[in-house]
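Input (structure):
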C-alpha cells in the first residue's frame, strides 16, 4: 500500500545583495519573517541553515515589547523564533542582529480566505477562491498547495493554479489538472494563501511581514474508495 501526494511550495526571498555562504562560494540571503495566521499571534523567525550569520539578539513589536529569539536547533543549521500576541495591520516588528542596524517590517492587512463550498462531490471545471478584504498594494501569493489523495492517490508536479497578479480578492483553481491527479479518488486539497509586505533590512537579509491563511477542501467525495487489503 503506497501513499502519494502532490505538494507545491511557492516561496520567494528578496533583499539586499547577499554575502557568500561559507565553503560553498554561493550567494545567499538569510530570511526573517513575521507571520500571522489568523490566531491572534505573530511568530517572528529567522532561519539560518548554514550557520553563516550572527545570531539575532532580540525581536521587538512597536519598538517597546521586546523578547529574545529562542534558538530552535535543527539538524542543519539553526532557527530562531519568538511569538507575540498581536497580528493587526501596521504592527511594526524589529529584529536586532549583533551590532547591525535594525531589520524592520510591518504586517499587511489580515483577511479571510473562502470558497463557495468546502466539499465538492465531483471536481468542477474551476473552484472559486475569494479573500476579503482585498485591493491593497501588497503582494499576494500561494504559499503552498497540497493534494492528498490517500491510498493509491496520484501525484503531479505543478500548475494547479497560477499565482495572482494583484490583490483582486478572487481567483479560480482550474479543475482539469485536479481531475488528472485525483481521478477516481477522494482527496484533500490544502491551500495556504498569503499577503506579503517587504521590510527594510541589512545587506544579506530579507524580511517579510506575512498574513497567511489555510483552507482545506474535500474533493471527489462521490468516488468509490473501497479498497481490499
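Output (sequence):
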Amino acid at each position: 500500500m503506497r501513499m502519494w501526494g502532490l505538494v507545491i511550495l511557492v516561496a520567494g526571498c528578496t533583499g539586499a545583495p547577499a554575502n557568500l555562504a561559507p565553503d560553498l562560494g554561493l550567494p545567499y540571503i538569510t530570511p526573517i519573517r513575521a507571520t500571522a495566521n489568523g490566531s491572534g499571534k505573530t511568530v517572528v523567525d529567522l532561519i539560518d541553515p548554514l550557520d553563516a550569520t550572527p545570531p539575532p539578539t532580540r525581536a521587538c513589536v512597536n519598538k517597546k515589547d521586546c523578547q529574545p529569539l529562542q534558538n530552535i536547533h535543527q539538524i542543519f543549521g539553526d532557527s530562531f523564533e519568538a511569538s507575540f500576541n498581536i497580528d493587526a495591520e501596521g504592527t511594526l516588528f524589529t529584529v536586532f542582529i549583533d551590532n547591525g542596524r535594525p531589520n524592520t517590517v510591518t504586517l499587511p492587512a489580515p483577511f479571510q480566505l473562502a470558497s463557495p463550498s468546502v466539499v465538492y462531490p465531483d471536481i468542477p471545471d474551476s473552484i472559486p477562491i475569494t479573500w476579503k478584504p482585498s485591493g491593497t498594494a501588497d503582494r499576494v501569493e500561494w504559499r503552498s498547495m497540497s493534494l492528498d489523495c490517500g491510498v493509491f492517490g496520484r501525484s503531479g508536479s505543478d500548475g494547479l493554479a497560477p499565482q495572482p497578479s494583484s490583490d483582486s480578492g478572487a481567483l479560480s483553481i482550474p479543475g482539469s489538472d485536479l481531475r488528472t491527479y485525483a481521478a477516481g479518488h477522494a482527496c484533500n486539497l490544502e491551500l495556504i494563501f498569503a499577503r506579503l509586505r517587504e521590510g527594510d533590512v541589512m545587506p544579506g537579509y530579507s524580511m517579510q511581514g506575512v498574513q497567511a491563511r489555510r483552507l482545506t477542501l474535500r474533493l471527489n467525495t462521490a468516488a468509490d474508495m473501497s479498497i481490499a487489503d
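Notes: Residues 21-107 form a domain with the Immunoglobulin-like fold (CATH 2.60.40). The longest helix spans residues 175-182.
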